[in-house]
Specification:
This protein is of the alpha/beta class. About 30% of the residues lie in helices and about 15% in strands. The strands form nine sheets. A four-stranded parallel sheet has the order 7-6-23-24, with helices on both faces. Bound molecules: iron/sulfur cluster.
Length: about 550
Amino acid sequence: MNQPKLDLSPKVSDEIRKTTCYMCACRCGINVHMKDGKVAYIEGNRDHPVNRGVLCAKGSAGIMQVNAPSRLRAPLRRVGPRGSGEFEEISWEEALSQATEWLAPVRETAPQKLAFFTGRDQSQSFTSFWAQAFGTPNYAAHGGFCSVNMAAAGIYTMGGAFWEFGQPDWDRTKMFMIFGVAEDHDSNPIKMGLGKLKARGAKVIGVNPVRSGYNAIADEWVGITPGTDGLFILALVYELMKAGKIDLDYLANLTNAPVLVNGDPNSEDYGLLLRDENNKLMVIDRETGKPAAFDAHGVQPDLRGSLRDKGNSHRSVFHHMIEKYLDPQYAPEAVAERTGITAERIKRIAAELADVAFNQAIEIDQEWTDFRGHTHEKMVGRPVSFHSMRGVSAHSNGFQTCRALHMLQILLGSVEVPGGFRFKPPYPKPPEAHPKPHCGVRPGEPLDGPHLGFVHGPDDLALDANGDPARIDKAFTWENPMSAHGLMHMVISNAHAGDPYKIDTLFMYMANMSWNSSMNTRGVIDMLTDHDSDGNYVIPKIIYSDAYSSEMVAYA
Ligand code: SF4
């Protein structure tokens, strides 16, 4: 039979440029095919360690980064009222002089009157550097309404979270649970990992109100009531604790569960961890029965330790965990109706986790020495792993839900072990190894340090001399103490209300607020266009910088 001759591999380009994808934070390797000097086609780079040639739909659409008709190609000056979309093109020189004319006096007198906020532009090292050099404390990016709860809860609990912090041990894990993850988050690495699990027959449980992509290929889908993941996780913790299926050796030797907590309500240090004169956390040594520094050579921390010291009573963190999480309010029967998951199903999933973690443990014949100098003959792995993202993080109680999930991982002894969750360098990195927030304004000079970070106590809050919020978004205040990525979604409403103070210029950088503030698009438009009694805009000046003509452009 005659077949038509088809060219199955037509030459689509005359040059290939290797780079990384800009469409999400995974940074997959891509080969960009150029034809006649233009981007013609994007394919995954098979040699790149992140994606090994895999390219998701969003990555393929990266071609529009360059070719989109909505690309802005020259600076624009508004000639009609805000929102009208009436602009004239101006030269770069005119645009930069206008911006300098507005911003120079602000920097010299009151730098905080510039609020500079960026979207998911992936160039935050540069934008934060610029804002810090300008001297305004008012800088943040989109993370504050996205995955900040995941990142902050992870760093405070175990020195890192999911996604860019590390990955499940895809080659060894035998049971994997994925909570609230859309397919565009950590896309290719997760898909490749799931492929490995499916090929090996490892069990995948998807927890999500919607049976979307990842949940459709899961072995079991748990269609949870939105916003109740924390209750479900704490019910799993309750069941595991009740059955004694937690890794006591791991907790005693590799976590701060044995550290002593001051339990005397009359003490100044009530609720704080006990420290010695060198500021080292204290435990009870099982061998001697005496207090010792947490990391002292040869110490064997006692999970059940307690101590009466200087008239104050102390008990280990573990005591408190048992009391708190064996509370009947977390029993499967108590959460079943609210989560939409039957008590029997919660118990069965907890039993499966316990079975895989403890009855199917991995042992690797590799001697190793821990940080206290104890030598162990083997590496023991608990082959259960977890992943979660914005669906859990961006709900009310997201921070506590994320903490609960990390605690579940730790109780099972499945962090930094074969088959469990494995960090990527430089993680795990505790909050002490991250910057603290800075808000020290000095007119005409740079800010006194990086804007964003991790508070360790009240002294680290971003408050002025009167105890009022130093930042326009009120991040790092008593109201929002652990807002590690700032609170971008509060900027426009606070600037409009003049609360905690009025600003002069709102400078948004690749931040389409009709998307970023979609919880109140109409309200945002009203705030951006509102006038005061003198007929001036309530937010006096708005500079907007973007590569595309997004909805925000009209309000510059
Ligand atoms: S997962 Fe997709 S969008 Fe993200 S970097 Fe990779 S190809 Fe690009």
